[in-house]
Fold this sequence. Notes:
This protein is mainly alpha-helical. The chain has one domain. 51% of the residues lie in helices and 9% in strands. It contains eight helices and nine strands. The protein has helices at 24-32, 62-88, 138-149, 156-184, 193-220, 231-242, 254-271, 280-295; strands at residues 3-5, 11-13, 45-47, 98-101, 105-107, 116-118, 123-126, 129-130, 151-153. Helix 5 runs antiparallel to helix 7 (254-271).
Amino acid sequence: MEWKENDFGLLVPASPFSYGAKKPQLNRLRKVLGSKYLLSQQRRQVTAGAQTVPTDLSPWDLQNLRQHVIGRQDESVRVLIGVAFLRKAGLVGRDDPVGYKGAEFQRGKCSKPYPAAHRFPCNPTIRNWGLPHFAESLRLRRALQRPLEKTDYLPNLVNDADRLFEANGACDAVAQAVRFVLHEQPTDKDINPKLIRHGAMGELFPGYKTSLQAALDLAEVNVTGIDVLDPSVFEHVNETWFASAGGSPKAEQSIELVRFTLEYAIQVSTSYGEPITLSPPAIAEYAGRLEALNKEV
């Protein structure tokens, strides 16, 4: 940043600076892919990730997209268990107002071609505070952040598909599931695996599926405004995605990759079944871990 001296002899930025300015791509996505509100970005706490930012075309591997969709379910279950624990510990109220904000936590830095795409769609809030705020110990706070910060390095167009998913009901589904868990989990009672299972399978995941379909419907009627990919990248995608997707016709426009991402996410989320994190032993293990961390200073 360049600096200059103002009339009072103080150094100030040489050019105007607007903190939190919207990125041109996000503005274009709002304009082209629908008028529904897309979550504004929060100032993020970025923690170091085990993976390095990709410098090649490896994130276009279809397996990476599958892992992102399946991982969303796993992190969602952990978020619901976290909400149930906060209610069990009496740290939040049964009828506290629930909402959501844009991502506040992020694991790993990112690059323009490969954003760090969050698995969980938003940052749920209770009384306008994120879940980690209510932790009584630093280690519990860190544990409640992890499902919210988990990211995958995926191509920019996949992140565009995620934004459509988030803006067309996914975050509302999260809020609804959080309200359900708050309302049904008693204080000072063990977390019931059936409660978590219904919160996920009966409330949240059906909302995800509806949101994916709504996002796909919106993408079907829009054909412009998405970043144009280099021809060599298109060739790579047609070989790695469409060739392995049962003879799907090759893509010719970038918007087709956004549509394919949403269609594939619907297919995977429908066929995958229940995540292992929903098994009673897994729920008990994770809840017990949160209990132990809450007692540590």
